[in-house]
Amino acid sequence: MQNTEFLFQKVKLGNTEVKNRVSVAPMTRISATSEGIVTDRMVSYYTSFAKGGFGLIITEGTYIDDKNSQTYYDQPGIAYDEQAEAWKKVADSVHQEGTKIFMQLQHTGPLSQGNRFADETVAPSAVQPKGEQLTFYLGKGPFAMPREVTKEEISDIIKSFVSAAQRAKSAGFEGVEIHGANGYLLDAFLTEHTNQRTDEYGGSTENRVRLLVKVAKAVREAVGQDFAVGIRISQSKVNDYTYKWSGKEEDAKIIFGHLGQAGLDYIHVTEFEALQPAFDSSDVTLVELAKQYGGLTVIANGQLEDVSRAKDIVEKGADVVALGKGALANHDWIKKIENGEALEAFDAEKVLRPTAKLKDFEL
């Protein structure tokens, strides 16, 4: 019998106490209305994880404004009070099962595949994104060439993150997660080849992490200390899976060190395999580097569905384990572990079959 007691320990994310160490990872869905309003099927989807025993749920990326932040058609938003009102049904239903829920706030930047508000995309610099759009989210062909975002627009984007966080708080969420990963806008600022700026937001690693820090500090100031604020960080992108920080551990020291002083409650690290070394120069994982240099609570994501792997990553410094494919295959993952039941393997055909409107994937 595997020792699973560590999974059922309570964890604090800022001032928010979570009943166990297991979270549902943020996973893209395109099942809102065309106006970005939460549907009843979304309420059922999130509630099913709460019923299954997960201590925390982090929602899919949710767009923050009516300008350039939307990533997909039928993506939910938090740009309007009407959208926030609809999200209340999700928060209320999840809370009835004793689970906490955070909203992930997303600005797509250069990787939009569908935006009802704008035909153009914006990025730190006018650099053609690598790869092609994701077909399972109804995309086709190369990404659009983005326009370089202005300093005035950067100020507006910070304000949009703040307003979105305030709406999430009004909707009953316990916290928000700032999406700073996977090639979307904030990560595009962090990434060398997508950020060719020569102002204070470009060049050195300290400059490239500046916008992430500003967003974190502004959100924290707006929502107060009792509302959890975290950030998701990755090296790889949805369109560039093999990308690594060129400065390796020195970059990790700067990035996590600055984020650790930005008023955040946690850092959510996502890698294709969380237990693999972050760089080819050492055996240290990105989770360990985040813990060492950030000094905050750490959520780890990346093929951790097996209990032994979850235990290993906790021993390496993770406080919470976030499951994507494992959660999709087992909405009751926690209860199955608790009862010693076998887990279902992730079957993309089975999980993704229902309709395009209900497609799920971990991004």
What would your notes on this structure say?
- With 363 residues, this protein is of the alpha/beta class.
- It has one domain: Aldolase class I (TIM Barrel), CATH 3.20.20.
- It is 33% helix and 18% strand.
- The protein contains twelve helices and 14 strands.
- It has helices at residues 40-51, 81-95, 151-170, 185-190, 205-208, 210-223, 248-260, 286-294, 307-315, 325-329, 333-338, 348-352, and strands at residues 11-13, 16-18, 22-24, 27-29, 56-63, 100-106, 122-123, 147-148, 175-182, 228-237, 266-270, 297-301, 320-323, 360-362.
- The strands form four sheets. It has an eight-stranded parallel β-barrel with strand order 3-5-6-9-10-11-12-13, surrounded by seven helices. It has a two-stranded antiparallel sheet with strand order 1-2.
- Strand 5, helix 2 and strand 6 (100-106) form a beta-alpha-beta unit.
- Helix 1 packs parallel to helix 2 (81-95) and helix 3 packs parallel to helix 6.
- The two termini are 32 Å apart.
- The model is unreliable at 353-363 (pLDDT under 50).
- GO terms for molecular function: FMN binding; oxidoreductase activity.
- Residues 7-343 form the NADH:flavin oxidoreductase/NADH oxidase N-terminal domain.
Short overview:
GO terms for molecular function: FMN binding; oxidoreductase activity. The chain is an alpha/beta fold and 363 residues long. It has twelve helices and 14 strands.
